[in-house]
Design goal:
This protein has 175 residues and is α+β, with helices and mostly antiparallel strands. The chain is built from four helices and seven strands. The protein has one domain: 3-Layer(aba) Sandwich (Aminopeptidase), CATH 3.40.630. A seven-stranded mixed β-sheet has the order 1-2-3-4-5-7-6, with helices on both faces. A hairpin with a 5-residue loop joins strand 6 and strand 7.
């Protein structure tokens, strides 16, 4: 693998195609990222079109990790939250291509998202991950604290219910 490059993403045909393929692959491999298998190209494209439009409104930041010119992982930092929560951001849609997993890419992306959250004057990060097959070990290794588990929270991409684990991490002193 070449040196990893992390960058904020914007809506271009090539970026959206790579994100679309990554989302479809993630769901096909059981990733609990809000979609059911099989995920259509049109539905994946609409999700990323909307998500990247929110980037243009500064409601979120979508980061990508590149191996050479190939987009191999992504994470979203959601900034637009209710008015009484200007101090926090939410981590969402953490995905790594199957071919690039277990190489430290997700760790690098999450650290970059944390840095950007601080730059946005956020002092708290929150996220959730599936109880079955989620990324709990990764999040805990980066200092996220488990708040609790909600049973039967969502359907798994191939059917059946899974709980969700809710995590938080303080990244600065409250205002």
């Amino acid at each position: 693998m070449s040196p990893l490059r992390i960058a904020a993403l914007s809506d271009t045909p090539a970026i959206r195609a790579a994100l679309r393929a990554m989302l479809i692959e993630t769901v096909a491999h059981g990733g609990s990222v809000s979609f059911m298998h099989p995920l259509s190209v049109d539905d994946a494209d609409m999700f990323w079109r909307d998500s990247l439009a929110a980037v243009g409104r500064h409601e979120r930041i979508v980061l990508g990790a590149f191996d050479d010119d190939d987009l191999v992982a992504t994470v979203t930092l959601q900034l637009k939250l209710p008015p009484n929560q200007p101090h926090r951001a939410e981590i969402a849609k953490m995905m790594t291509r199957v071919s690039h997993r277990n190489r430290g890419i997700a760790t690098a992306l999450l650290r970059a998202a944390e840095t950007l959250a601080r730059q946005e004057q956020r002092t708290m990060l929150v996220l959730d991950t599936a109880e079955d097959g989620g990324a709990s070990p990764l999040y805990e290794s980066l200092g996220f604290q488990l708040s609790g588990i909600i049973p039967d929270y969502a359907l798994k991409p191939h059917g059946g219910l899974t709980g969700t684990k809710i995590y938080w991490k303080r990244i600065g002193e409250p205002g």
